[in-house]
Design a protein that fits this description.
Distance between the termini: 28 Å
Strand content: under 5%
Structural class: mainly alpha
Largest sheet: 2 strands, antiparallel
Helix content: 55-70%
Strand order of the largest sheet: 1-2
Number of helices: 11
Number of strands: 2
Shape: flat
Order of helices and strands: HHHHHHEHHHHEH
Radius of gyration: 22 Å
C-alpha cells in the first residue's frame, strides 16, 4: 500500500487504520473501559460541586461561557471558574470514551459488541452535553437538571456494562444462581432506579438550587419527598438482607455473595450520610458525599446483577492477526 492510499484510508476510516497498526492487550482494553467508568463518576461529583457552590450559572450561556467569550472571564470570579472547569471535564470524559472505542476496535480478534457499546457511550456523552447546555439556557430548570443526572446514570450503566464485557467472552450467558435469586436481584435493580429518580426530585425541591439567583424549584413538599425517598432506601436494604440470607442458605457462588456484601456496605454508608445530612440542614460536604454514594450504589447494584451469570472467555487464538475484512470494516455506530 503506497503512502497516498494509506493517507486516504486514514482519512476515510481512522479507527480501522489505527487498528491495523496497534494491538492492545486485554488488560489495556479493560483499563480503557474502566477509565470511562471512573471519569463519569468524577464528573457527577464535580457537577454536584457546581450546584453546591451556587455556580450553576457561573457561565450564563452555552456553548460559550458568555455572549462575548468562549471561556470564563476575570469578572465572573470563582463561580465562572467552577462552572467552566466542569464543562472542560466533558472533554476528559470524551477522551476516556474515545480511548475505550479505539482499544475495543483495535483488539484482536475484533469484538463488534464492545465497539458498539463504546459508541453508545459516545452518543450519550454528546446528548448529555447538549442537555447540560439546555439546563443553563433554561436557568437551571429543575426538571432538566434531573434529566441531566438521569442521563448521566444511563451513561454510567453502559460504561459499567462495557467494562464487564471486556472481562468476559461473547458466548451466551450461563446463570450461576437460581431463578428466584435472579428475580430478587432484578427487583432490587428496579427499586434502586426508582430510588435514584426520587432522589433527583428531592434535589429539585431541596435547599441547593444551584445558583444564588432566583431559580425555579419542583413544587413538592421537600420533607415529604425526602421521607418517600428514605422509604425506598429501606426497602432496598431489606431486599439486600433477604438476598444475603438466601445466598447463604443455598450456598451461592463466591462472586454473587461478594457483590451482595459490597452492596450492603454501601447501603449502610449511604443511609448514614442521608440521615445525617437530613438532620443537619443538608450541609454541602455531605450532599456531595451522598451524590458520590448514589453512583457507587448504582454501580454495586449493576455489578451484583452482572455477577449472577458468566460468559467464559474463548480459548486463546493461535494467531492475533485480523482478517482483511475486519481491518477495512467501516466505522461502526450504535445502530450497526
Amino acid at each position: 500500500m503506497n503512502r497516498v492510499s494509506q493517507l486516504t484510508q486514514a482519512v476515510r476510516n481512522p479507527l480501522a487504520y489505527l487498528a491495523e497498526r496497534w494491538t492492545p492487550t486485554s488488560k489495556t482494553v479493560q483499563r480503557a473501559a474502566l477509565s470511562s467508568v471512573v471519569m463519569i463518576v468524577v464528573i457527577v461529583v464535580t457537577g454536584g460541586a457546581v450546584r453546591l457552590t451556587s455556580s450553576g450559572l457561573g457561565c450564563p450561556t452555552w456553548p460559550s461561557c458568555t455572549e462575548e467569550s468562549l471561556t470564563t472571564t476575570r469578572e465572573m470570579g470563582l463561580h465562572g471558574v467552577i462552572e467552566f472547569g466542569n464543562r472542560l471535564l466533558t472533554y476528559a470524559v470524551s477522551a476516556a470514551v474515545g480511548w475505550t472505542i479505539l482499544a475495543a476496535r483495535s483488539a484482536k480478534p475484533w469484538r463488534r459488541s464492545l465497539t458498539r457499546l463504546g459508541w453508545w457511550q459516545f452518543w450519550l456523552v454528546m446528548g448529555n452535553a447538549v442537555l447540560g447546555g439546555i439546563t443553563v439556557l433554561t436557568d437551571l430548570n429543575p426538571y432538566t437538571v434531573a434529566s441531566h443526572f438521569l442521563l448521566t446514570t444511563a451513561l454510567l450503566t453502559v460504561a459499567l456494562v462495557t467494562w464487564q464485557r471486556t472481562r468476559e467472552g461473547d458466548a451466551a450467558p450461563r446463570p450461576l444462581v437460581g431463578l428466584r435469586i435472579r428475580r430478587l436481584v432484578q427487583a432490587m435493580v428496579g427499586v434502586s432506579a426508582v430510588l435514584i429518580a426520587v432522589g433527583t426530585v428531592v434535589t429539585g425541591a431541596g435547599p441547593h438550587p444551584g445558583d444564588s439567583s432566583e431559580v425555579p424549584r419542583i413544587p413538592v413538599d421537600w420533607e415529604g419527598i425526602s421521607k418517600f425517598h428514605a422509604a425506598f432506601a429501606w426497602l432496598l436494604v431489606l431486599l439486600a438482607l433477604a438476598l444475603w440470607a438466601v445466598m447463604r442458605a443455598v450456598d451461592a457462588p463466591a462472586g454473587p455473595r461478594a457483590r451482595t456484601r459490597e452492596l450492603l456496605a454501601i447501603l449502610v454508608a449511604q443511609g448514614a450520610i442521608g440521615y445525617v445530612q437530613y438532620f443537619t440542614g443538608m450541609p454541602e460536604v455531605l450532599v456531595a458525599a451522598h451524590m458520590l454514594g448514589s453512583c457507587l450504589l448504582w454501580i454495586a447494584v449493576l455489578r451484583l446483577l452482572l455477577s449472577l451469570r458468566e460468559r467464559p472467555l474463548p480459548p486463546a487464538s493461535p494467531t492475533s492477526t485480523p482478517t482483511p475484512g475486519e481491518a477495512s470494516a467501516p466505522l461502526p455506530t450504535p445502530s450497526a
